[in-house]
Amino acid sequence: MAQELVLVVIKMIVVFAVALLIVAYLTYFERKIIGHMQLRLGPMRVGPHGLLQPIADGLKLFVKEDIVPHDSDRWTFYFAPILNLVCALVLLAVIPFSYNFMVTRLNIGVLYVLSLASVGTIALLLAGWSSGSKYPILGGLRSAAQIFSYEIFLGFSIMGVLMISGSLDLVKIVEAQS
Fold this sequence. Notes:
Blueprint (H helix, E strand, L loop, with lengths): L1 H36 L15 H11 L10 H17 L18 H22 L3 H32 L4 H8 L1
Helix pairs in contact: 3-4, 4-5, 5-6
């Protein structure tokens, strides 16, 4: 029991670290491509060809001053982005990266993914509401309405996959593709 728990924790750490590194370097590549499109080099200051720029950006985020609006709900203002990040990272726990490597296997993996995506949308609403101003509330409502409307069609598109595979388990869905 304890060995399985340690293995799950190690897998979670590996998956989350790899996901965060991928996002950081996708941002780096986006900045490089946009720089070349604008006939400039892009980020080049940190490391060879700017390869350490995502790490420098991450360190800069921890050093920056937190600016909180005066009329905001401080606890919700800090909690909403964390909730959104946690929802995005915890979604990765059920994705079967290979037959032997997945953090956990759920019989209802598709429902888990859809429900956590909805909770992430609620985090956007909380972020807009927590600022205490009318324009961020409107922006949060607009973003949430867009995502909710996309989730409806995402659910309909998943229905075909579920009917063909006959299961909500993501591993069985992957096996049905072979």
